[in-house]
Amino acid sequence: MHKPRYLNYLLSIAISAVLLSSTAYANPTNLKPVGEATMTWWGFTLYQAALKTRTGAYQERQYPLYLELTYARPIKSEWILQATDQQWQHLGVTEDKRQTWLSDLAALLPDVQTGDRLALYMPSVQQHLFYHNGKVLGRVSDPLFAEQFLAIWLSPRTSRPEIRAQLIQANNP
Predict the structure, then answer these.
(1) Cα–Cα distance between 86 and 65 in angstroms, integer?
(2) Does residue 162 fall inside a structural domain?
(3) Is 110 domain-assigned?
(4) What are residue 52's DSSP bridge partners?
């Protein structure tokens, strides 16, 4: 049986749309810098954080967002998970959510070495990807996860308001 020509045309449009959307989803290189901040702990630099958006300005709940951490020293993934849990406790994330998300993160996050980059790209409120040194690590299945992960740095209730202010350029018009 012969397929009508318009079905091939529709199929090619559908395939092109999927390829284009997955390329845009997985490629945050067209974003502009907003701000940078250095995270220290007891005088030791842990990482340099950089925030990027489409416009180069931060607005809450405006996407895409890209947060990249460039590590200044080796850090085990267990330590990253512990620090994440502490920050989520500070932000009031429930125990159930924290444990589920930490388990998901444990499957994704590697130990980092000096100069390694971990990043979270959030093209929309319910989509995200983690990167390690520019390569996709994966994602956490819960669509609420990414917003709460970014809240560690970007929430007005963060435990490090000076980091937030530098990342979002709060004092610049």
Answers:
(1) 23
(2) yes
(3) yes
(4) 33, 66
Q: Residue 64 and residue 69: Cα distance in Å, rounded?
A: 17
36 within 8 A of 47, measured Cβ to Cβ: no
Residue 124 belongs to a domain:
yes
Number of structural domains in the chain: 1
Task: Residue 145: give the domain boundaries.
Answer: 30-168
**13-56 residue pLDDT tens:** 333 333 334 434 445 778 999 999 999 988 899 999 999 999 99
Provide the whole-model pTM: 0.82
62 touches 31 (CB < 8 A): no
Return the structure tokens found at 30.
């067209």
Q: Tokens 């045309």 appear where?
A: 9
For 113, the 3-state DSSP assignment is coil
Q: Please state, in angstroms and rounded to a whole number, the distance separating the CA atoms of residues 122 and 102.
A: 18
Is the residue at 153 inside a domain?
yes
